[in-house]
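Can't paste images in this forum, so I'm doing it all in text. The chain is below; anyone willing to post the predicted structure tokens underneath?
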Amino acid sequence: MTTAQRPQEARVAHPHSLAVPAARATGCPFDPAPEVARARREEPVTRATLWDGSTCWLVTRHEDVRTVLGDPRFSADATLPGFPFLTAGARELATSNRTFIRLDDPEHARLRRMLTADFMVKKVEAMRPEVQRIADDLLDTMTDGKTSADLVAEFALPLPSLVICLLLGVPYEDHSFFQRHSQVLLSLRSTADEVRASSDELLAYMKRLADAKRQQPDDGIFSRLVARGELDSVDIAAMGRLLLIAGHETTANMTALSTLALLRNPGQLTRLREEPSLIKGAVEELLRYLTIVHNGVPRVATEDVTIGGHTIPAGEGVLCTINTANRDDDVFPAGDTLDVGRDARRHLAFGFGVHQCLGQPLARVELQIAIETLLRRLPGLRLDTPFEDVPFRHDMGIYGVHALPVAW
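Text version of the structure:
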């Protein structure tokens, strides 16, 4: 049965389903929500109830998540009936001014190819000296005459923001503007009207920037998109908005959360300091262990598909919880334990399949440099507030901490 033929009564709430986003009142804040972690162990493909009372399927095991994300019968098109949204604001963001992450092939591939060369491993590796310079400059400023700081505000956030602005050709002096609006777009508490207003302001900014690049091009991604002549200003603005937000929010939160996780695991921190050659593998392990997308990667079935012994009918939504998949003991023994010496290369922190994260080579370079530089330059780094007082981002679509007071 096709999506168009599937009756919509499948969206009626199921009395025994798990509510998402799941509550996090208990448990370690680095871990998946307890109910979702329990689902992976006891009922890895289960029903979930969304904010509006509709339901979807929750897929929690590594093997099943890979299967869904790699199967073209599960669509990323947010305009299809049954597509699952965590909030009304998330629905507004996903369905207005769509970008390639909410499209299927061939249109997804056509748009993504316009950016592939900018994020190839070879090109990103060539940026290491510049990223290292930025990291050192930020730490110079952060430590100048001081013995404490908020690591998020003074290091973790500005590092990827500076890098993505450099890549895109976006003026960094406007960073407070786009960071303010990205907070609204990613908040699980934002209303549809609030998301629409922030999205419109960001898109208007990007359109003005695209027009400016037509008059005064540079070597940034924005100028190259304009010069191709294949996209109108609305599409370029939407793509720029996506890259700008994804390019700083994800790495910023991984940097701060990784630092906190290492501080809370002093044995792992000591090992990484003593064996700096482990840094690349340690970053993969931190990506696996922390997995900052906590509320699931959404898809909708376009045909009836059997996953984990359950038939998911056409027209029903799926949330793939990659944070539970990355703790799957069948793939990562003692998966709830941080081990910087682990081979974590099969993790799904960047997704899987044709939609996996385009910017993952850049994220890896930034994280490797940020963490190595912090540990090398600040041997006395420590948390400067009780762990219980750290403000975790339970209210955001990208997990992390709102602030991280540290001392050295």
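Residues 8-407 form a domain with the Cytochrome p450 fold (CATH 1.10.630.10). The first strand starts at residue 18 and ends at 19.
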